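Cross-posting from the modeling subforum.

Setting up a comparison between two proteins and wanted a second pair of eyes on the formatting. Protein 1 (sequence, then structure tokens):
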Amino acid sequence: MGWIQDLVKPKARGWEEFYRNRWQHDTVIRSTHGVNCTGGCSWAVFVKDGIITWEMQQTDYPLLEPGLPPYEPRGCQRGISASWYVYSPIRVKYPYIRGVLMDFWREAKAQHPNPVDAWGAIVGDEEKRARFQRARGKGGFRRARWDEVLEIIAAACLYTAKKWGPDRVFGFSPIPAMSYLSYAGGSRFLQLFGGVNMSFYDWYA
């Protein structure tokens, strides 16, 4: 009978634990995804030790009226695979700057403590401006600090507004279907600043 026991519970079946543990979780969170879709479907996100393990469509939408079928289940393949992006090795998690511009900026900041003056020293130099503009489309990005990137953006906006006027500051917002907060934040900033908000999805926001 030893051979029967080996078939029922062989040692080689240890890999099955992976599938048993696959659906374990300690927390369920309601969320949605920014995947360029205005549906904004609600998802139950299952979390284990702070890591998203799997997701399931929410099925508690209220009925709109008795004569209409339920508005569920909502959620598509694009939405259910969105959590893979969170842990993707190719996800961009940090700001990057073209190396030539980063070098120019740090050199200018060493000479001009005022960030606006530092930016003016770069773009006011025709040779430097031409060099970092020619670098576009050629890669050469280097990881930068958040505070450094935000300072460059702020300095560039203020310099442009002071020299040419705020309406020379153009911004291209994320589409609302990707992120309502990012869209509203960027659009509101440009409105208050006096800049121009460019977006091809303004008509439904």
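Protein 2 (same layout):
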Amino acid sequence: MLFLSVLTTIAAVGGVNAASSFASSSDGKYQLSAAQAPVLNAANPGIDNWKFTIKEKTGKKQTVKGFGAAVTDSTVLAFNKLSATARSQLLNDLMTPSGINFSLMRHTVASSDLSADPAYTFDDGNGSVDTNLVNFNLGDRGNALASMLATMRKLQPNLTILGTPWSPPGWMKQNSKLIGGGTGSNKLNHAYENAYAQYFVKYLQTFEKAGAHIDAITIQNEPLNNKDDMPTMLVQQDESGALIRDKVGPALRAAGLSTQVWAWDHNQDVYSYPQTVMNMASQYVQAAAWHCYAGNNPSNWTPLTQFHNEFPGKEQYMTECWTAVGTTDWIHSSSFNMFPLQNWANGIIAWTLGSYTGGGPALSGGGNCHQCTGLVTVSPDGSSYKKEIDYYMMGQFSKYIPKGAVVVDGTGSYLFDDGTGMEAVGSLNPDGTRTVVIQNRYNKDIWVQVGTESESQTWNARVPALSVTSWILPKA
């Protein structure tokens, strides 16, 4: 890994106790750039200070499974506009240690709000009932998405991929419509529950043949989202539990698939939903998936700690939170990494990986995600691309907290009512090094001290204003 090779060089020059620091700032001055390295017991030069502690020996928590973003039809369309050389370089920057080393991706199973018109599934068949799925077909867009995921997997052998549908084929629903929510009939027709379970099996098998092994699924994106201008389906918590327990889980096992099922895939404010699904179908459900749209402050993420306390053997993931070009809220993407990690999340997935400059393409419905923009934006003619600020903020976590790291408990994080303050999360990495990711919300540099359980003195360095800074401390 690149940062490990950098550490090796630094240690050779500065000794075995050398550490390193990399930062990304709101003004773009730092973009995963080298910052002042922490030093044991260094003296404060006379600026405001803040102290954190990490408990890398006695405070071990969850294992990190990765960071990444969602691959949508819009992502594929935008990235495929680039020349082969530019696209290869971009994917290398996204998926390898020389870049930001993404290792956890989510993809849309057929159409989402970030698809060009018309909406589609893998078995539309002009709306005719097809219980045997003889018309199942990925189509051009599905094949293009599977191909891009296969390329990503070649670049990142440790990649974990989650697949999520926005809706089953319209003929499987009570209202017989792919788009047409807003009523109680935007639900799965019980007569086609077996067909829907087999739809998952065929999709997984077909992607596997394309070289895009899928590690996990959720059975429905935002199951309480019943919007009428995009593919959606209303699934109540008891219905979700029963569908996984009685149909989807057994179908995956009967097909010899090891694909995990994750529950929920919606906001943090309906704790009872994943709780009910776990109580009904825990033998088939390995994790809970959460979105950020109930709020992105520290208190909004405490349901994940509650879930861990009730289901300590299950994993949790933050599987969707928007990114947008032009936002001055640089804190947003770093926070939807920081706060879930502080509350037992095993991985983080941004919405979305790539788009055209300014957003899209998106379905034409007025309520859809037209302004949702990717971590990377591509000019509509494919002549150039730009890594947006959220790319760098995500990279502060994904590049320096490797897969297999263990998040550790700590103290010192605090936000004031005016939004200022400091936050941090630490990890013990597989090679014994330690990472501390620090969010500085002050419009000034802060002298940060980090105490550990391995050293009697604190690590100290200047952390840039309005930045996210990652310290890599040597093996104790």
